[in-house]
């Protein structure tokens, strides 16, 4: 049977992650199957402690699953170690976090250019990419500023520029508006929507259902599992596996 849907950018099967802290083990991700296709804007929403951030960390290779498999652009990540993950992430996955995670000792320009240089871009190319992105994100003139001199909203826009400078096929965003005021929140969501409209594949984690409504597919995450998966804006709804809440999206 032919399948004319866009190719999967990311596919996960049977992901499991338990955190072993001081108290009882936290079963943060209990078996997740997921497929994100090129051009999708997917929001993962759910209550605090549901396991959303852990799932995003697994999908971005920032943590390793206890069980399960993950493919990026159809390529298995099973054999990736830390170093390989760092290389692949630089090329394939941009990540923005709630608290920006900019390098405080580097200027705005250097924060944005660094991942491009690490990925092998020439200084000229890194500079051109940085200039274009900062202009697009309304940050022209802030190049020489240090992150601590910027508002939260501006810092998150710098983080967005840094995440996108290598044109990664996938953007992961973990509560990107979680530490912003309502103006900063609107701005970040507007920018995510704009990049999505241009074809950027985005996976957004948020506890805020209003922010999730900017996406075209919303996954409800509860107690380490996918409880619901819904297309908001037409398209073919993903297949569901019923009450277990675990998606079955085999290609
Ligand atoms: N590094 C860790 N060590 C121990 N337990 C952890 C760790 N990270 C997360 N947890 C636990 O795993 C569970 C899921 O946490 P996670 O941060 O993934 O949820 P979340 O849905 O993103 O929550 P929030 O919306 O509050 O960020 C929680 O019980 C949390 O306390």
What are the main properties of this structure?
251 residues, Rossmann fold, 6-stranded mixed β-sheet, 10 strands, globular, nucleotide-binding, ABC_transporter-like_ATP-bd
Model description:
The protein has about 250 residues and is an alpha/beta fold. It has a single domain (about 40-60, about 80-230), classed as P-loop containing nucleotide triphosphate hydrolases (Rossmann fold), CATH 3.40.50.300. The chain has helices spanning about 50-60, 80-90, 110-120, 125-135, 150-165, 180-195, 210; strands at about 10-20, 25-35, 40-45, 65-70, 75, 95, 170-175, 200-205, 215-220, 225-230. A six-stranded mixed beta sheet has the order 6-7-8-3-9-10, with helices on both faces. Helix 3 (about 110-120) crosses helix 4, helix 3 (about 110-120) runs parallel beside helix 5 and helix 5 packs parallel to helix 6 (about 180-195). It is globular, with a radius of gyration of 18 Å. The protein starts with 7 loop residues before the first strand and ends in a 20-residue tail after the last strand. The structure holds adenosine-5'-triphosphate. Adenosine-5'-triphosphate binds near residues 48, 51 and 52. Adenosine-5'-triphosphate binds next to strand 2 and helix 1.
């Amino acid at each position: 049977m032919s399948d004319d849907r866009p190719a999967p950018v990311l596919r996960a099967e049977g992901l499991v992650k338990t955190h072993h802290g001081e108290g009882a083990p936290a079963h943060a991700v209990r078996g997740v199957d997921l497929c994100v296709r090129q051009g999708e804007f997917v929001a993962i929403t759910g209550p605090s402690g549901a396991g959303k951030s852990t799932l995003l960390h697994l999908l971005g290779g920032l943590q390793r699953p206890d069980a399960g498999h993950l493919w990026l652009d159809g390529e298995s990540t099973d054999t990736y170690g830390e170093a390989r993950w760092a290389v692949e992430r630089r090329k394939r996955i941009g990540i923005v976090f709630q608290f920006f995670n900019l390098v405080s000792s580097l200027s705005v320009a250097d924060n944005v250019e660094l991942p491009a240089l690490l990925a092998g871009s020439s200084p000229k190319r890194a500079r051109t990419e940085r200039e274009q992105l900062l202009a697009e994100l309304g940050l022209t003139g802030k190049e020489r500023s240090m992150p601590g001199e910027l508002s939260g909203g501006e810092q998150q826009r710098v983080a967005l520029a840094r995440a996108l400078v290598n044109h990664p096929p996938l953007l992961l965003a973990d509560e990107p508006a979680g530490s912003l005021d309502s103006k900063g929140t609107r701005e970040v969501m507007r920018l995510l929507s704009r990049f999505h409209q241009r074809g950027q594949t985005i996976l957004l984690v948020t506890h805020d259902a209003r922010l999730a409504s900017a996406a075209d597919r919303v996954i409800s995450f509860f107690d380490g599992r996918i409880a619901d998966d819904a297309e908001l804006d037409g398209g073919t709804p993903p297949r569901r596996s019923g009450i277990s809440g675990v998606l079955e999206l085999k290609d």
